[in-house]
Amino acid sequence: MKFAVLRYLVGGFVVVIAALLIADGDIKGAFKGELKASSAALARFSDADLSAGEKGIVYFAQGDFSALTSDTLKVSAAPWVVLTASLSLSTANGDLERVNPEAVRDIYKSFGFHTPRKFENWPDALANPDLQYPVGQNVGLAKRLLPPTAVTIANIGCPACHSGVVYDESGSPDPDRVWLGAPNTSINLESYSNAIYAALLTYSRDEKQEMLWAAIDKLYPDLAIRERYTLKLIVLPAIRKRIQELETTTGRLLPFKSALPGLTNGLDSLRVKLGLEDQSTVIEHSVFNSIPDLGSRVFRDRFLNTGTYVVPAREAPNTTEPADITQERLQALAGIATFVTIPSMGVTPEVAISHIGDMEDVMLWMKDYRPQSYPRPLDVSLLADGQQVYRDHCSACHGSYDESLEVPALLSFPNTYVDVGTDRRRIELTGADIADAINASIYSPYIQGRAATEYTAPPLAGLWSSAPYLHNGSVPTLQALMYPEMRPAKFRVGGHALDLEKVGIAGDFGSDGVWRYPETHKPWMPSEEVDTTAFGLGNQGHEKEFAPLDDGQKRALLEYLKLL
């Protein structure tokens, strides 16, 4: 007992002296030379003998892309202990009795992060993944002996957006089961960032320190002394300083709106990272991007719905066939995909490039990836007619499939730009300045930037579980897409069930003309309203493509699309 107390006092004294000498409340000064952590969940597979595809799904699910560092703490990562304690207190209105580890999981679930029991499409041959942390939150402990510092760092990962709840035959979501690669149509990064700002604004203040530390002690009773003093003497002073700066400038964590549930704002994040936006003022107009299923994405030559990221030397529209998906192509796609980690995770281009090999493994997994199958028996009498309608009216933009009426395989994808009359705000804001900045960067050998002129037609894999639809998520069902007069001006999204017949978010117009969820459905996380009259959220477009079809053809097409 005496030895333990002495070790605690001596260790604390060493940490205090070191911190005072090198830090003075400045993270940059404290962490001279980058402090790095690795995803704790990934450690389970560090000694496993995995195939490239197995490495791909493991890294996709829990790989950190070197985004858990003292450098990313300055831009997008967060000190997990302080973050969760602050969010817990804020959610509990300062009631320490309600602060506990289970509450942390519920908090993340309320922002649309998944806290499942299992990954439904996890390979049977692999050890079960560590699901201690919310899916899409990579967490690891960074530490070193001299100077004696330690901090648990969290940063967002791929499956925060690219994993979806599993739906049963009634269309009900099961948040305890998650499908990796499906779109997270409930992730609410705007609500999450606003909650972080509000929590840190309150609980980083000097007068709230006692309460904050009480919450930390409840959540992390075994917190090491080295991390305790790092937080107290380095991290918390840096947080207070940054929050005070934000109070006098933007009044929010990010200088732009991060979107609505199931939508993301990669455009503003990229512009900020490229130095094209002033971070001290709020960006007035933002446009959002609907999250796709990852099925068949390896057929694409260009990423994003604007086609902004292009495989070098493949600018002209090129039809992709299965034989084209070679190792060389997957490596090229990996180069583009790692570029996404720069705005999303806050890493440098050099760090992103260093992970192209890991992303190649991810691409190998994506090559064989299949979306969750439609969970209800199909009307087989309609499938052949629906297949023909698709060939005649959809395949020129969305790709051609084989003859199968069970599991159609994509045979060719045109990689074309199209104008179907959808909201053009995203096109207007994706200009040559972005393309020029990308092409002038060290990433130019791996990615070609392109100023947007039209949208790129996507593959339709996993379409039935990907609502809401269009590039900006402005239409709740495929039926409403086919019948424009049925499109609601406002609807809710987040924690929703699916209407498997209309194919999309379950809901309908009430007698008052307002579109609502079914009264019997209780969302598994808070929903929000999509207002299609708002900037960038217009629900027009794709009308003329359905105009030639009669009701029977639309019904047959809807049934066929459930197969993809």
Provide an overview of this structure.
With 564 residues, this protein is of the alpha+beta class. The strands form nine sheets. The protein has a three-stranded antiparallel sheet with strand order 1-4-3. Strands 2-6-5 form a three-stranded mixed sheet, with no helix packed on it. The protein has a three-stranded antiparallel sheet with strand order 9-10-14. A hairpin with a 5-residue loop joins strand 9 and strand 10 (309-310). Helix 4 (80-91) crosses helix 7.
Quick rundown:
With 564 residues, the chain is α+β, with helices and mostly antiparallel strands. It has 20 helices and 21 strands.
N-C termini distance: 65 Å
Shape: globular
Average of per-residue pLDDT values: 92
The protein's oligomeric status is single chain
- Helical proportion, percent range: 25-40%
The description of the largest β-sheet is: 3 strands, antiparallel
Instruction: Write out the strand line-up for the largest beta sheet, numbering strands in chain order.
Output: 1-4-3
Beta content comes to: 5-15%
Number of strands: 21
Number of helices: 20
Q: Which radius of gyration do the C-alpha atoms yield?
A: 24 Å
- Low-pLDDT runs: 1-26
- Structural class computed from helices and strand pairing: alpha+beta
Note the main attributes of this structure.
alpha+beta, 20 helices, disordered N terminus, 564 residues, three-stranded mixed beta sheet
